[in-house]
Amino acid sequence: MLANLGDWLNDRFGWRGIWEAIFLRKVPHVNWFYTLGSASLFVAINQAITGILLTLYYVPTPDHAYDSVVYITTQLPFGWLIRGLHHWGASAMVVLVVLHLLRVFFYGAYKFPREATWMTGVILLIVVIGFGFTGYLLPWDQRAYWATTVGTRIAGVAPYVGDFLLKIARGGPELSAVTLARFFGTHIWVLPTTLALLVVIHLYLVIRVGISAVPAKDE
Amino acid sequence: MSESDKEGKEVGRRNFMKMTIVGIGGLITAAFGIPAVAYVMGPALKQSVGEWIQLGSVTKVETGIPTLFKTVIQTQTGWITTDEEFSVYVLTEDGQNYVAMSNVCTHLGCRVRWVADQNGFFCPCHNGAFAKDGTVTGGPPPRPLDRFESKVENDILFVKRG
Amino acid sequence: MNKQEQQDYLDKYKKAKEKGVPFFPDIIFKDTIVVFIVFIILIALAYFVGVPLEARANPNDANYTPRPEWYFLFLFQLLKYFPGNLEVVGAMILPGLFITLLLLLPFIDRSPKRHFMTRPYASIAAIVVVLGIGLLTWLAVNEAPPPIQAAVVDKAAALYATDCANCHGQGIVIPEGTDLHKLIAAGNHQGMPAWGGDLSADEIDMLAGFILSPNGSALFTQECASCHKSPVLASGNPVQLQKVFDEGKDFPAHKDLNTPDWKSTLTPDQENALLNFLAAPDGQRLFAINCQGCHGEGVGFSGTKEELRAMIEKGGHEIKMPGWKDTLSADDLNTLAQYVVDPEANSAGSTMFGKYCAACHGDKIPAAPDEASALSIIALGGSHITMPVWGEILTAEQLDALTSYTWDTSQGVGVASGEKLFASNCRGCHGKFGEGGPNPTFPGDMIFPISSSEYLKTRDDATIRNIISQGQPDYGMTPFGSAYGGSLSDEQIDAILGFIRSWEANPPSVSPPKAPPVVTQPQELSASQIYGSLCAQCHGVNREGTASGPALDPAQLRAEFDDQALHDMINNGVLKVAMPGLGNMFTDDQVKKLVILVAGTETGTSTGSGTVPKPPTNSTVSFNDQVLPIFQAKCSMCHSSATTFGGWDSTSYQAVMTSGDNAPEVIAGDPDNSYLMQLLQATNGAFMPPTGKLSDEEIQIIMDWILAGALDN
Questions:
Q1: pLDDT tens for residues C234-243?
Q2: SS3 content of chain A, % helix, strand, coil (to 5)
Q3: Residue A182's domain is classified under what CATH number?
């Protein structure tokens, strides 16, 4: 019955071909360090799920942001878990992505034919850092406010255009409702779409050229 | 060790791995799914505790005529506390027993009004009509006006909202 | 990497792949295990550590120490090493360069070598970068000042910065001889506000200390502030402060503590700076701390200022009071002795004390247990008292200030303390603590307290200055300002103001006595006043009697008692009915007059003044004919249905009886408790009409009307 359904669907979608290409392909023997990429992907999915759940209640205005975060954490069933997973997931993401990068670096896996995979990976790292930076402001507590005040100040350091950049980052000369709104928009729309696109390219390249083998001593 | 043994072991190992993957995958899905459902439904499932709301002195109620009481109550929705006007029609026929009726039309939630000339409540939206005791006398409303539990203490009228 | 090498790699990889395993389930199995571990760790962190949420963002909080998320800490730390113009290097160029390098890595490192041991430079570079970031993060975590102990702040400097720096900039040069404490407290005419209302005396001291010795303040912050939370704790007595330096480790309070040996750690200059900060060169305070114990509020010094300074500085000499028995007559000696034992008893003593004793004793009257011992000390001379060598204790600045203050007070002008001026000008009516009392100008009126924080808060300095200088004729207060014919200069008024203001921060430590009852000035009270305030409580204002006392009908009294019996009754009280005896409170003469008042003499005259409550005139007072016209003439401009000040409408019977913020303003039959009467008679200080009291006749009419039941007739 299930097999019949599978056949029926396969005739229409051709999913078995895709399945074989992605999952049944042969891969060189690799060690546990090679799981870091998948772990990063998992945490990214974790961030997406918990992030979406948080937006159900979170309101990105200075008047309500803090209260809504308190509400999520203290009033809602499992609110502490959802927010906890998102918060710690952000740190885990940075850790895993950096470890993943180091693994690729020390195994020389960025070399031919995987240069493009590496470059998308580096951009992904920047996106992840961008997530951390924009997400930090959203709870609108003291820590968030002041860290972002200092953080955006860095943009102002640039010669000639610094002031202009600072105003763009903050949406004005000071941290305000505008800043919160644009950080929120960046955090939940701009960065996630960028991330999704880059992850797809990254994975496509990984599957296309294959996972690098563990280099031998003399390689 | 024969070739087939080796192959059999290999199959067993692969099966074990597949089951582990499915098992852990299911576990993680559940660990996301169940809290997520609770988290989304949380506010909807919250039991509102009925609380007694003070309306005012019973002497304001004229016998045989529904009297509108308006009072402002504080409601907490999510993280916002708002002042909300709460209106109740109170009817007494004997000066002893009081009937407190919602002024919300049971059809689609418009506010009904007492029209003394016609001795009935009328809804401005879809021509719903109710008798003074709240029973439907015309139009689309599916049931009589909702009633609140009420009590009188020291000549002060209270209704239970919940 | 050339074409050949690339081809070699691809071939090799193909072989590795063929020998390899299927992605599913082999690889995914490992992934799943790791993912599961990561997930468990995340849940554990969420559960056991939770998510920190600090207080709501407060853009005005200047004390918050901003911290970025941990993975930005290394950048945060890096910026510390790029000061000023170079900041752009740390903030932009380095990170930008690093990212670019990372992005272009495959094109920079083009060798075919892959194993990290075969490409040592790249590996070492990577390790250095990782360790560098780790080190920076570690440094940031450890260097970060914990927010709680947020750097010890120089409180005095902070106070100066908020209150003074706007006008005075970084520092002020203080002209010699300035009484800084007073100046700060009272302000000046060049627009400097009087800080006495906003700052406590200790804070003003701290400011004065800082202005005169900023280094001392810094030293205090650095050396002392970790134990002494505020300069107040350490400030005060220069004798004690000097001991800290003289005794070093042996100083009692520091003995058991692990303090440095201040004797050897501080240079003389630093000691000086610290002393000047902690005991600000503020003559008045220095005098109060060091001299008042022996000299009272001031000394009468007749030499030159230089001599005074030398005397204070050298100190040390024995001071012996001469025996006065050869100089003064026996009568004078007795008077003085009486005065010393009880300064209130003999006013002649005050003059004599000022003449003979104040030069040394100031206005501090030495205590003596009884007249006999006082007399013997005065007659034979006093014991030896040694004045400390102030030159060893005080800094030069402090000596200058103390000399200057002492000199000025001894001259009796100008800078004499506000307290002294208050005592001589204001105390008579307002009481020692500004608690008020009976108004000598308007009998029956009470002067309300001026030391209550409510009073002081609701009046600014200009208002109080005006009140003092222009007086309050409506309340019987004469102008004190020289511009209005009074005796006080602007500076003196400022000094008084400063003193009055000091109540606000430091309310009088002795609780002000209750408004003095009639007892204090027995001779001033007439029989009718005594009756009104004491007897009427039970016998009724018009002797009509109340629940607690019988009516007093002269005829009936005369029939039952003779003069002596009445006198005894009033004098000793009547135990049976708990009537108090008034003999302890009043003179015999007053009691006699009271007898006449209540029972009359044979001729029936009473000695009361115009305000004696007369028995109600037998004809009832008419509201419409008599009372309402008074209201219309005197009250209705403010109290009508159109302008109802105080909520009271005086234009109709109904309104009179029911309206008003303190309604009912009229209590039928009870004038004493009718707010209207209280206002008309200014019983509680407040009075009506504001333009001046109604005539006695008018008041009597209204009172009679109320007594008769406040009828609508």
A1: 456 777 777 7
A2: 75, 0, 25
A3: 1.20.810.10
Question: For tokens 């990290």, what's the residue?
Answer: C116
pTM value?
0.51
| Angstrom distance (rounded) from CA C516 to CA C484 | 31
> Can you state the percent helix, strand and coil of chain B, rounding each to 5?
30, 40, 30
C422 plus C409 within the same structural domain: no
Question: What is the distance between the alpha carbons of residues C80 and C98, in angstroms, rounded to a whole number?
Answer: 18
* Residue range A98-127: mean pLDDT, rounded: 95
Shared domain check, C539 and C401: no
Pair C128, C162 in one domain: no
- Note whether C214 and C200 are same-domain residues: yes
Spell out which residues of chain A touch residue C22, defining contact as CB-CB under 8 Å: 23-27
Q: How many domains does chain A fold into?
A: 1
SS3 C477: strand
Structural domain boundaries, residue C489: 418-428+438-505
Decide: A190 and A4 in contact? Cβ < 8 Å. no
Q: Which of A26, A96, A112 sits opposite C18 (nearest CB)?
A: A26
C30 is a domain residue: no
Nearest Cα neighbor of C42 from A176, A2, A39 is A39
In a domain, C604, yes or no: no
* Contact status, residue C414 vs residue C493, Cβ threshold 8 Å: no
Note whether residue A43 is domain-resident. yes
Is the omega angle on the peptide bond into residue A113 within 30 degrees of 0, that is, cis? yes
- Contact across the interface for B43 and A76, Cβ inside 8 Å: yes
CB-CB: which of C16, C55, C110 is closest to A28?
C16
Q: How far is CA C622 from CA B57, C35, C160, C293, C541, in A?
A: 41, 100, 68, 67, 21
Residue C92 near residue A157, CB atoms below 8 Å: yes
- Amino acid letter for position B124: P
Residue A23 lies in a domain: no
Structural domain includes residue C5 = no
Which residue segment(s) compose the domain that A176 sits in?
Answer: 30-209
ipTM confidence score: 0.96
Residues C367 and C450 in one domain: no
Yes or no: say if C406 and C331 are a contact pair by the CB < 8 Å rule. Answer: no
- Strand B80-92 and strand B98-102: the pairing is antiparallel
Cα gap C485→C480, rounded to integer Å: 7
Using the Cβ of C39 and the Cβ atoms of chain B, whether some distance falls under 8 Å is answered with yes
Q: Tokens for A22, please give them.
A: 């992605």
Strand stretches in C347-481, DSSP E: 384-386, 437-438, 446-447
Within this chain, do residues C175 and C199 fall inside the same structural domain, yes or no? yes
DSSP assignment letter at A61? S
DSSP string, C486-497: -SB-HHHHHHHH
How far is the C-alpha of C50 from the C-alpha of C407, rounded, in Å? 69
**Pairwise CA distance, residues A71 & A57, whole Å:** 8
The answer to whether A106 and A78 have CB atoms below 8 angstroms apart is no
For C647-662, the pLDDT digits (tens) are 788 888 888 888 877 7
Q: How many CB atoms lie within 10 A of CB C245?
A: 19
Phi/psi of residue C150, each to 5°?
A: -35, 110
Total count of residues recorded for chain C: 713
Helix/strand/coil (H/E/C) assignment for every residue in C217-261? HHHHHHHHCCCCCCHHHHCCCHHHHHHHHHHHHHCHHHHCCCCCC
Taking each helix axis from N to C end, the angle separating A177-185 and A115-137, rounded to the nearest 10 degrees, works out to 150
Asked, for residue A114, whether it belongs to a domain, the answer is yes
User: Mean pLDDT across chain C, nearest whole number?
Assistant: 75
Domains: count for chain C: 6
Residue C38: inside a domain = no
Best to test chain A binding among B28, B32, B46 (most A CBs inside 10 Å): B32
* Band of residue C509 on the pLDDT scale cut at 50, 70, 90: very low
Least CB-CB distance to C25: which of B17, B27, B28?
Answer: B17
